[in-house]
Amino acid sequence: MVRFVLATANVHKGNEMRAILGPLGIELGDRPHGAAEVDETEDTLEGNALLKARALSQTTGLAAIADDTGLFVDALGGQPGVRSARYAGERASYEDNVVKLLAELAQTPEPRTARFRTVIAVAYPEGESFSVAGELEGTIAVSARGAGGFGYDPVFELRGVDRRTLAELSENEKNVVSHRARALRALVEELASR
Ligand code: IMP
Q1: What CATH topology corresponds to 2-193?
Q2: Spans of all domains in the chain
Q3: 151 burial class (0-12, 13-18, 19+ CB within 10 angstroms)?
Q4: Does residue 68 have an active-site annotation?
Q5: Residue 11, pLDDT score
């Protein structure tokens, strides 16, 4: 059994990561209480994911894993991107961010193409670190649909025949197709090749 301590305190992300990695023999431990939150000061997902994983590994002396995700909308020049969590302001809720996104795209005809990108970084206390990524192509819906998932899921539609939003998928369905699932599969391959 491989074990990492998980940098994210986001319950949704933690649940998704554990559901995907658990059956593959990778266990994720909770971030210890009192481990300081790291400010995401880098301007790339890779930079921020590595920053979080390295900081936690140094604090705990354990192998650490961190996830950083962004939504990149073509008609907005790649926004909200690295700033996806704070798109509508420093303390924005998921709903605030979705409302702002739909308002910004109000004059943009469909299809409003976009992609989710997740970077997973791993850092070891000896100093070594690496990152892997996964992407999911989609379009931004004109209004929110579905009750599952979190964040921008209600407005992120799959491309192709199945045009459901990620929030209309079951947890298991999202965990097969998602950007995070793809990044985690890349992680498993990378760990196996080492
Ligand atoms: P973070 O900086 O990696 O925590 O994520 C940035 C923002 O992207 C979060 O606040 C969420 O709103 C959004 N986000 C991250 N992952 C997902 C996802 O799987 N679905 C929808 N939104 C997500």
Answers
A1: Maf protein (3.90.950)
A2: 2-193
A3: buried
A4: yes
A5: 92
Q: Which of 68, 74, 153, 162 is catalytic?
A: 68
Q: Which of 31, 46, 152, 158 to mutate to test the pocket of ligand 1 (most atoms within 8 A of CB)?
A: 152
Confidence of residue 1 (pLDDT cuts 50, 70, 90): confident
Place of tokens 């481990």: 35
Coil, helix or strand at residue 22: helix
According to the model, what pLDDT value does residue 36 have? 79
The whole-angstrom separation of Cα 180 and Cα 119 is: 8
Percent of the chain with pLDDT strictly greater than 70:
100
Name residues contacting ligand 1 (CB within 6 A): 10, 67-69, 71, 84-85, 94, 97, 149-153, 166, 178, 180
**pLDDT on residue 46:** 98
